Amino acid sequence: MYMEMVLAGLMAHTFSFQVNPRSVSTITAVLILGPTAITIVESPGHPLRFFFAALATYLSTLAASIVAYRLSPFHPLASYPGPLLARVSALWQLWTELDGKQHITYRRLHSQYGEIVRTGPNHLHFCSASAIRPALGSLNQWHRHEGYGVVVPPGGTGSIMTVLDPATHKLRRRAWDRAFTASALNDYRPMLGARLRQLRDIMDLRCGDTLDISQWFKFFTFDFMGDFAFGSAFECMARAADPEHFQRTISRALRLLELCSKIPWVRAFVLLVPSPIETLLRMSMDLARSRKGMAGSPQKDLFHYLTSGDGGDLSVDILSQDTLIAVIAGSDTTAAVLANALYNLLTTPLAFAQLRAELDAINLPDDLEDCDVLKNCKYLNAVINETMRLAPVIPNGPTRMPPPGQPVVIDGRVITPDTIVFIPFYALFRDERYFSPDPDRFWPERWLASDESVILDHNAFIPFSYGPTACVGRHLALYEARAVLAMLVQRYDVEFAPGYDPKQWLADLKDHFIIETGTLPVVMKRRVVD
């Protein structure tokens, strides 16, 4: 019996290597079919005891064979350095992610092993500016990793972010591109101006009180993205809360997505039980149906552009997922940039004063609907760039993999199919080869310096990613960030709340696919201008 189970375990490894099982039925068959068959054939007097003995032998052989191969010199990634446990199992990645500090771990690994690190059985991290263009510049040569599809329901098409086929992505992207033209951005100004005035009025009422400005930034961006995607949805600022728990559900769904992207076969089992991803998809479907029922609405929001032109035949299922992606990509991310920027300014008073001096030379309209003048504020742009450099909203960056059966060259290395490649933004943006001196210091002046001793490689700075899947809404996000920061710095004196330790802010920053922020208690007072 034992010899049969050893052979069956070795055969199962060979089968799994060739087929790469993803369905529940196939995975279950790989795990128990062999022991079940031998139990039936042998027909012992104690079948249950026999089955578990056979199963233990079988699974032990399967695991030993997998580990031996992954550590052997025959593995395609054998020549790349990295932690031993990372070579053995993707569970190592999950372990590093538990405390939300994986971005710091990967940076440390690059310092230890160099610019290319093996961080999983089939995972490579490239901390190299020269890897950006070949890895992210084309979806024809490099494909999105299958982990992007973990939130697609069985039989569903998925959102623009989860589309793996390059041709389909290109077609779907056209509607999104129309939604972010200069003309379209002008259409969004009234709704953004209204939310800015609402935030300003709330801050005026709460002057002198301690408030968690990080949470209020989330309320603001969530409300605006609700307007932008669904024509009005959340009203978090008015309620000073997220009554539908949409934000919390997004956070939980992103953590589950992180799990499934590390171990793709887990997705098959996640879909069998209720999960935050399922809840999120259901909530967005309800919002999409409600917005679609507003046929003939004069408001030009994202939904309007996705349902016109080439996107006119999109199903409600696709529309709900696309608009959901817009809310996720444009709410917590922009709120994190705003909160990190304000934290950096409060811990660097000279930078705060410099920014205020620049903004005092500008007259923003009282309705805050036309903030184009801020685009030319060099120091404001430097503050935002420096903030995104130090705390990128996707710290571990995007992933890519070669097309099936087609090895690809990157940085002079041949990358075999099924290899998942990461471009870790956090480590890359703090690499002294590209940002020096003091790559860990908040120093907006580095973006304005003409001194040759200051190293600033713009090719290594891609906070909105790069290539055909780069963030299509980056201009809107920057416009929004400039407007909020300018309004706050011009109008209020801001300081940390009494008793708050600023070091806690950095300790609370977590990487769960998208950067998560903690609380940032501040006291704001109306500025007195002489």
Automatic annotation (TrEMBL):
InterPro entries: Cyt_P450, Cyt_P450_CS, Cyt_P450_E_grp-I, Cyt_P450_sf, Cytochrome_P450_monoxygenase. It comes from the Eukaryota. Gene3D superfamilies: Cytochrome P450 (1.10.630.10). GO terms for molecular function: heme binding; iron ion binding; monooxygenase activity; oxidoreductase activity, acting on paired donors, with incorporation or reduction of molecular oxygen. Heme binds at C471. Pathway: Secondary metabolite biosynthesis. Its cofactor is heme. CDD domains: CYP67-like. The keyword Oxidoreductase applies. Keywords: Heme, Iron, Metal-binding, Monooxygenase, Oxidoreductase. SUPFAM superfamilies: Cytochrome P450 (SSF48264). Belongs to the cytochrome P450 family. This is Cytochrome P450.
